[in-house]
Design brief:
With about 400 residues, the protein is α+β, with helices and mostly antiparallel strands. The protein has two domains: about 240 residues, FAD/NAD(P)-binding domain (3-Layer(bba) Sandwich), CATH 3.50.50; about 80 residues, 2-Layer Sandwich (D-Amino Acid Oxidase, Chain A, domain 2), CATH 3.30.9. Helices cover about 35% and strands about 30% of the residues. It is built from 13 helices and 20 strands. It has an eight-stranded mixed beta sheet. A six-stranded mixed beta sheet has the order 8-2-1-12-19-18, covered by helices on one side. The protein binds 8-demethyl-8-dimethylamino-flavin-adenine-dinucleotide (RFL) and P-hydroxybenzoic acid (PHB).
C-alpha cells in the first residue's frame, strides 16, 4: 500500500489532519488500534476554543457543533464562599463552545467515511521504519494479516501512550515533565443543568468543576487521590463531596441525578521535543500533555494539525519545506504558553497537601487578584478562549 501521508491514530489530531489534507488534495491513510464504536464513545474533552470552532466550521464539520454545542460567554470561579464571574466575551470578544470530544470524533469519522477515506480500525503491531529516509514506511497487522504502508511522511497522532514518540531515538529527544500529586474523579450524570456556565471551585477539601454535556447530561469533576479507586466512591459519598466543595453562601444548589459513569484520571504536564525526526512528525497528545484544568489538550492537538496541514500543502504545491522544518519551533510557542496556563490554573485552584500556610495565603491572594483586576481577569480569559493563531 502507498500513500502520501500515513497517520497513526484516529483521535481528534489524526482525523482532523486527514480531513484538512483531503481538502487540500493530499491523500492520507489513518491507522487506528481501537474500534470505531470505541473511539466514538470515549468520554474526554468538552471545551472548544474559538479558534478550534473556526477551524471545524471552515473545514465543513461544524454543523452539529453549532446546533448541539453550547456557546458559553463566561465561566465562574468559586472560592471563599462566593462565586465570581469571568466575562470571557466582554474581556476578549471571544467565547468557547462546550461540545464533547467524542461528538467531534463522530463528525470527523462521518466526513472521512463519506469521502471514502482509507481509515483502518483495529490495526495492531504498528511499527515505523526508515523515518530518516525520503520513503518511510509503517508495518502493521489488519484482520490478522501483516501489511506495509509506504508514504512520503508519517504523522504520529497516537496519543500519549502511542508508539510514534518512542520511535525518535532517545539521544535526539528531550522530555519535560511534571506529575501532579492529585487526580480528577469524573462523573456523568443524568440531570438538568445546575449552572449556565462552568464553575471552577477552589475549596479547602480540594478542587471541583461543574461542566455539562447536553441539557440533560452533566459532567462534574472533583480533585482526588490519583491512586484512589472508583469502587471507594458510592453515589452518596460523591454528592456529599461535591455539595461541600461547590455550594456557598449564595444559596446556589448543585442538582443531583443518576450517575452513569465514574472514572479517575491522573494529571501531568509533559512536552517532548523535537516534534519531528526525519520524515516523522508528532502532533497532539503524542508530543505534549496538559492537566485538564485549562481545557487545552484537544485545542492544542487541533492547533498542531492546522500547522502541519499548511506545511504539507506548501511541500506538495510548491516543493518547499521551510514550514515543515520550522514546525517544532512554531508549534512549541503555543504549546509552552498553554503548558504555562494549564499549570497556573491547576496551581491556582487545587489543594496541595504539602502547602505551607504561606503558600495557601499566596493562592488566596492570587484568586482575589484574578477576580478584582481587569488586567488579571483578561489574562485568564484570553488564554482560556485561546490565543489567536500565528
Ligand atoms: P488521542 O485522543 O489520545 O488519540 C490518539 C489515538 O491514537 C490511537 N492509538 C493508536 N493507533 C494505532 N496504533 C497505535 N500504536 C496507537 N496508539 C494509540 C488511540 O486509540 C487514539 O484513538 O490524542 P489526540 O488526537 O492528540 O487528542 C488529544 C485529546 O484527546 C486530549 O488532549 C484531550 O482529551 C484533553 N482534554 C481536554 N482538551 C481540551 O481541549 N478541552 C477540554 O475540555 C479537555 N478536557 C481532556 C479533558 C482530557 C481528559 N482526560 C480523560 C485525559 C478532560 C479529561 C477528563
Ligand atoms: C469537561 O467538560 O470535560 C471539561 C471542562 C473544562 C475543563 C476540563 C474538562 O477544564
Amino acid at each position: 500500500m502507498n500513500t502520501q501521508v500515513a497517520i497513526i491514530g484516529a483521535g481528534p489530531a489524526g482525523l482532523l489532519l486527514s480531513h484538512l489534507l483531503h481538502l487540500r488534495g493530499i491523500e492520507s491513510v489513518v491507522l487506528e488500534s481501537r474500534t470505531r464504536a470505541d473511539i466514538e464513545s470515549t468520554i474526554r474533552a468538552g471545551v472548544l476554543e474559538q479558534g478550534t470552532m473556526d477551524i471545524l466550521n471552515e473545514a465543513g464539520v461544524g454543523v452539529r457543533m453549532r446546533s448541539e454545542g453550547a456557546l458559553h460567554h463566561g465561566i465562574e470561579l468559586a472560592f471563599g464562599g462566593k462565586r465570581h464571574r469571568i466575562d470571557l466575551s466582554e474581556l476578549t470578544g471571544r467565547a468557547i463552545t462546550v461540545y464533547a470530544q467524542h461528538e467531534v470524533i463522530k463528525d470527523l469519522v462521518a466526513v472521512r467515511v463519506a469521502a471514502d477515506a482509507q481509515l483502518l480500525f483495529e490495526v495492531s503491531d504498528v511499527s515505523l521504519h526508515a523515518i530518516d529516509s525520503e520513503q518511510p514506511s509503517v508495518r502493521f497487522k489488519h484482520g490478522g494479516e501483516p501489511q506495509q504502508l509506504k508514504a512520503d511522511f508519517v504523522i504520529g497522532c497516537d496519543g500519549f501512550h502511542g508508539i510514534a514518540r518512542a520511535t525518535i531515538p532517545d539521544i535526539s529527544r528531550r522530555d519535560y515533565q511534571r506529575i501532579y500529586p492529585f487526580g480528577w474523579f469524573g462523573i456523568l450524570v443524568e440531570s438538568a443543568q445546575s449552572s449556565d456556565e462552568l464553575i471552577y471551585a477552589q475549596h479547602d477539601r480540594g478542587f471541583a468543576l461543574v461542566s455539562t454535556r447536553s441539557p440533560m447530561v452533566q459532567r462534574h469533576y472533583f480533585q482526588c487521590d490519583p491512586k484512589d479507586e472508583v469502587a471507594n466512591w458510592s453515589d452518596d459519598r460523591i454528592w456529599s463531596e461535591l455539595h461541600t466543595r461547590l455550594e456557598n453562601r449564595d444559596g446556589w444548589k448543585l442538582k443531583e441525578g443518576k450517575i452513569f459513569q465514574k472514572n479517575i484520571i491522573g494529571m501531568r504536564s509533559f512536552v517532548s521535543t523535537p516534534m519531528q525526526h526525519g520524515r516523522l512528525f508528532l502532533a497532539g497528545d503524542s508530543a505534549h500533555i496538559v492537566p485538564p484544568t485549562g481545557a487545552k489538550g484537544m485545542n492544542l492537538a487541533v492547533a498542531d494539525v492546522r500547522l502541519l496541514s499548511i506545511a504539507l500543502d506548501e511541500f506538495y504545491k510548491k516543493g518547499q519545506q521551510d514550514q515543515l522544518d520550522t514546525y517544532t519551533e512554531t508549534a512549541l510557542k503555543r504549546i509552552w504558553r498553554a503548558e504555562h496556563f494549564s499549570w497556573w490554573m491547576t496551581s491556582l485552584l487545587h489543594r496541595f497537601e504539602d502547602a505551607s500556610p504561606f503558600q495557601k495565603e499566596l493562592q488566596r491572594a492570587e484568586l482575589e487578584y484574578v477576580i478584582s483586576s481587569r488586567a488579571a481577569s483578561t489574562v485568564l480569559a484570553e488564554n482560556y478562549v485561546g490565543l489567536p493563531f500565528v
